[in-house]
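Re: the request from the purification team.
They wanted to know what the chain is likely to look like in 3D before they choose a buffer screen. I agreed to run a prediction and write the result into the notebook, where they can find it.
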Amino acid sequence: MSTTVDQPDRQQNVTSAKGPSQAVSSLNREYRAVLINEEATGIGRAVAQIVRGDGWHEAKSSAVLVTAVIGWLGGDAVRPIGFCANGTGPVEMVAKVGNYYITGHGIESEDDITVNCCERHRTRFSQARLEDLDPAQPNPRFAMGSPLAQRAVDRLAAILSEEIDPEIARVVLGC
């Protein structure tokens, strides 16, 4: 006598919520398009040259970018975060909006931000951390007092607002 177990004829597909939603992916494409447009790229290079960097992910440029994101989405939606590597102070600033982080490389999820920053700054995961930052506090890597930096913040915030509706971005990112 054999016993049978009731099993469905086909395997049920179970999908897990891995990665960003289609709306976040679309927003990320728009955001990255803004960062690589001619004017924004020029702003990023000009600010990065102050510290001999090469773009939006450099320390000074990332501070300008985060401050511009605050101007674009509003201070109530954005939390400035510093990535600290190898036991030092912050080497990159990112903007936390909802469950996502806005960087000079695009919009990254909470699951990926530390790993991606570790790869960018060549540091071990065990020697890295994210911590809240106040852009107004004096910090030699993120000094925002220069007129060039402030003009860059104002112009980049305006470009972001012109290209991507801030209200839609806030909703998509979960603010």
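For the purification team: The mean pLDDT is 81.
Please add any questions underneath this entry.
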